[in-house]
Write a sequence for this structure.
């Protein structure tokens, strides 16, 4: 069994990762931690083969924890699971030896592919005293291809509609806007618009605030949080 440790500060995401992990044979959950300080003693004292690591956490972030793990000299592999999708973050992941890099939000299929691929590599390596060049090349090239091909639009969203949504958001500049308002401008349903805005929030391009009126339900207001448009261009292409 591959002993796996989840480090994730969002309880809902941690729970999804736990449920996903339970669906894949051959993995055993060692524990869940929500911060650097909570994770480090467990890493130091427990037998762990694989960590599913978030980057954005309160206090010291995931990069600090990954650096500490490498400094300890423990043979622990790491799959990064994060909304950080900029070029520098991905380079950091490769530099620290991440075996895969999953960009939030992602589907179960991508999660399963990452873990089963890792599992197959471990079986191949552990069952052979020596690897030939072809086997080694397949492992290394497959791993790099998985990490560097990460900028995919989630299932259920389309590139053409995402472009329309983004164009209307850019017109708003730094002004807040509601889901209903943007849905009317783009010409899609409120339910569909929520999916696009959730995706843009998850990859840290939008920020969201909840506004409570005198009566009625709360209204979710959004605006651009990250003006580095290279992030969105990874998904929709450069203008």
């Amino acid at each position: 069994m591959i002993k796996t440790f989840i480090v994730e500060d969002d309880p809902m995401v941690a729970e999804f990762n736990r449920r996903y992990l339970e669906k894949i044979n051959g993995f055993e959950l060692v524990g869940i931690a929500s911060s650097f300080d909570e994770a480090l003693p467990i890493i130091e004292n427990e037998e762990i083969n694989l960590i599913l690591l978030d980057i954005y956490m309160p206090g010291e972030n995931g990069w600090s924890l990954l650096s500490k793990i490498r400094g300890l000299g423990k043979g622990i592999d790491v799959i990064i699971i994060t909304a950080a999708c900029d070029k520098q973050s991905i380079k950091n992941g490769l530099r620290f030896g991440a075996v895969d890099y999953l960009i939030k939000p992602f589907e179960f299929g991508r999660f399963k592919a990452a873990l089963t691929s890792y599992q197959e590599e471990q079986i191949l390596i552990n069952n052979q005293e020596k690897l030939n060049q072809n086997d080694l090349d397949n492992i290394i090239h497959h791993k790099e291809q998985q990490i560097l091909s990460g900028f995919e639009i989630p299932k259920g969203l389309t590139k053409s509609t995402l472009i329309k949504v983004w164009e209307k958001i850019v017109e708003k500049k730094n002004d807040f806007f509601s889901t209903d308002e943007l849905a009317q401008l783009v010409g899609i349903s409120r339910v569909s618009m929520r999916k696009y805005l959730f995706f843009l929030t998850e990859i840290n391009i939008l920020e969201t605030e909840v506004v409570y009126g005198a009566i009625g339900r709360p209204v979710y207001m959004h605006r651009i949080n990250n003006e580095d448009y290279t992030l969105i261009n990874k998904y929709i292409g450069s203008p």
Summary: The mean pLDDT is 82. The beta strands are 2-7, 27-33, 50-53, 77-82, 100-103, 177-178, 206-211, 219-224. The CA atoms of residues 183 and 190 lie 6 Å apart.
